[in-house]
Target: GH18 domain-containing protein
Amino acid sequence: MPLKAIFIAAGLALCLTANVLGRPNVVGYYPNWVTMPSLNLSMYTHVNFAFAIPAAGGSFTYDNQEAMPAIVSSLQAAGTKAIVSIGGWTGSGLFSSILKTPSSRAALLANIVSYLKQYSLDGVDIDWEYPGRMGDTCNVVDSTNDTDNFLSFLRDLRTQLDMAFGSRSKLLSLAVRVEPFDGPNGPISDVSAFASVVDYINLMMYDIAGVWNPTTSANAPLQYAPGQGPRFSVGSAIDAWSNAGWPFGQMNLGIPFYGYAMTANTNMLQNPSNMYAPISSIAPQGDQDDRAVAVQCSGAPAAYSGEWQWKHLRDQGILATAGTAASPWVRTWDSTTSTPWLFNPSTNIFITYDDPQSIKLKVSFAASKGLAGTMVWGMEMDYSNELLDVLHDFPSSNTTSTSTITTPTATTLGPSGTTATGNPSTKPISTSTAPTSSSAPPTSAVTSTTSSSSSSAGGPVAGAACPATGSYQCADSTGKSPSYLLCLYGKWIAQSCGSGTACFQAGSSISCGWPQS
Model:
């Protein structure tokens, strides 16, 4: 759909985002409450210090602030932008009150400018979860005035940043949910005025699945399945913002380096082509870092989030390799959401997550739409750069074509509140074109195993004996068919890659990518 307006300011914004470093954006959130591993910070174009927490009078505090000068200096020496992020899930409670009160609003504006000067920062990220919509249950919400007040505040913030540092010399970004900001009647239809003063938005395209939903589903689906699970996806989120007037080139697609565990009420491997099953409303413990936490203000007992960081899926023995589950876990691929899922038949625990294969498809999709790049939550969750390396394969604009992926467009509003509760203290919480490749498909290998039960086309036959549960093979070797087979309890089960893609065999590994011409 054509954009509602084209702004000179949008062009200026692009000069400060993707083009300033000569490569697509890779924005990482750097949480100040975790012990960060040794990271190559130069692999990120922007690092957001998370989070500065606003107080009622317009001041804000950032924990572990004493470490900031050294980190900022090292980032900037490597050509990476250092940005302070204000708010977050549990830090958004007072935004509504602050911005409607002249004295606290003015104080927040002045304090942001002062903070950027004091720590030589390159910009500020505002993560308000959410204007006009309840996020954390502690938050103040004014559905009538929040979004208008936010726009007025951002306009004044841009003016003050330009006056203090020079026109467009400091970055202003926002972390946003899967639909535009809310007015009295739900998401507003025109966000172009916001885009004229903001350099880019970071689309928090995750936390779609969890125990707040009635069934298992995908945490960050590329597409959603009509009639199954929440009606949100990467495609619908990008469309929702672009249709409301936000330029593609001022968006970064949020990529989760984590997933969620849920307890299903049935053995889902009895029907591995269906990733949707009723679940318990209580999340099981996730990885070794998951702690039972009480939600402020609600009075509810402490509960686990079920969160599994990618690094712990790998180092706690859930995944034997990036694309292979360790027994008794079984890895399955959902072709509609283009995401993997894990299941343990001895406990009925289901895990939705992203891996190199699914992230590669998201990266290719974002590039085909002309997005500025990607955003990561969170930087500390990777394992040997297995996921981060995929973000650096963001295709340039000259690798896209007009072949299409069908993406259902949401026609109803999401649940009141948000698409997630999860582990709230730890997150900043379309029809499209698909890239083509002249050589290898744009995905990582997903598993290994070959079989002697083959068809004349070079692949296994559904129903034939197979060697090991959790193994995969393409149905044929043409590089044009989406069909592949999953080995489950000694027999091959027919499966399919995502719409418009094909299965490729490379030795003992397979991948789902764009068909060979």
